[in-house]
Amino acid sequence: MSTLSRQQRKRRPANETSTARELRLLSSQTVGGDHRDALNAREVDVESAKSEGKNGRIKNLVRELLIELGEDPKREGLRRTPKRVERALHFLTAGYQQDVKKILNNALFEESYNEMVIVKDIDFYSLCEHHLLPFYGKCHVAYIPDGKVVGLSKIPRLVDMYARRLQLQERLTTQIAKTLMKALKPAGVAVVTEARHLCMMMRGVQKQNTVVTNSAVLGVFHDDRACREEFMQLIGHRQMG
Q1: Domain carrying residue 37
Q2: Residues 6 or more apart from 15 whose CB is under 8 A from it?
Q3: What stretch of H or E contains 7?
Q4: Entry pTM
């Protein structure tokens, strides 16, 4: 961790938060592709902190919820729980504050390559909008360029943007596919998601080994069966272990 000079310490605002300070230090370094990605990643936490500081309503609602459940929010183990839950929810739903253009960050490049590009086994975590319980799994994304390619790290970032919302797995899968189709204008896009849903594991039917699989195929992946089968073969389609 770099050490601040005396001059830098003098310029630092007295009420500056650790998150804002880290972002400022990053911005003072040499700008490159990795640096821009780091800044984008930190923006989510900064916006979450801003939202939390504005109202704190979630914290108060969590405190009331604990009381309704028969708990004492003043006891030692629960004193900081409302604040922790508020921060966690801001992070887990940070996708609402993110923008596709900022995620892609001008990382679209002219390229004559026209074969299949696959990014597979992308881990994701989301919240089921029906019970606010997690579902988690892997996402496999493919596209066939038509004059443009996208920086590979942008695809997992796009998955995270849509996963960090109150979601349905079906909608998540479709949103990723349609966004890539619109942004890249490729010959086709294919997305497969596989997930376990805690709303089915912890409650309800309580089935522990059920895996839900969804797919969205657009363009040539929709029209050409051979292309679609090649994608499934290349991702080694199998259920989650």
Answers
A1: 6-92
A2: none
A3: helix 6-11
A4: 0.77
